[in-house]
Amino acid sequence: MLPKHVTGVLDDETKNAVIKFQKELDLTDDGIVNGQVQAQLYLAVAQKVQDNNPALKKALSLNLRDMED
């Protein structure tokens, strides 16, 4: 979803990526990153990190009782 080259500039490529993200979440698709969009971006990043973090997956799979021994 991110542009290939992150520049820190809100160019057409970035605005189009924001609009696509907004449409996927059924938000107002105006290309403006308001508080609601920002919150959803944070959630999406957190989910991606959780889904792709082998150490976190292992920790979550452990039985907490085993850790108390």
Could you explain the architecture of this structure?
With 69 residues, the chain is mostly helical. It has one domain. It is built from 4 helices and no strands. The mean pLDDT is 84.
Please summarize what this structure is.
The protein has 69 residues and is mainly alpha-helical.
Number of helices: 4
Radius of gyration: 17 Å
Helix content: 55-70%
The best one-word shape is elongated
Percent of sequence in beta strands = under 5%
Largest sheet, in brief, is: none
Kindly state the mean pLDDT as a whole number? 84
> How many strands appear in the DSSP assignment?
0
The termini sit apart by 44 Å
Low-confidence blocks of residues: none
Category from helices, strands and their pairing: mainly alpha
**Number of separate structural domains:** 1
Order of helices and strands: HHHH
Spell out the key features of this protein.
69 residues, mainly alpha, 4 helices
SSE inventory with pairings:
Elements: H1 12-24, H2 35-51, H3 54-61, H4 64-68
Protein name: Peptidoglycan binding-like domain-containing protein
Organism: Lactobacillus crispatus
Domain Peptidoglycan binding-like: 4-41
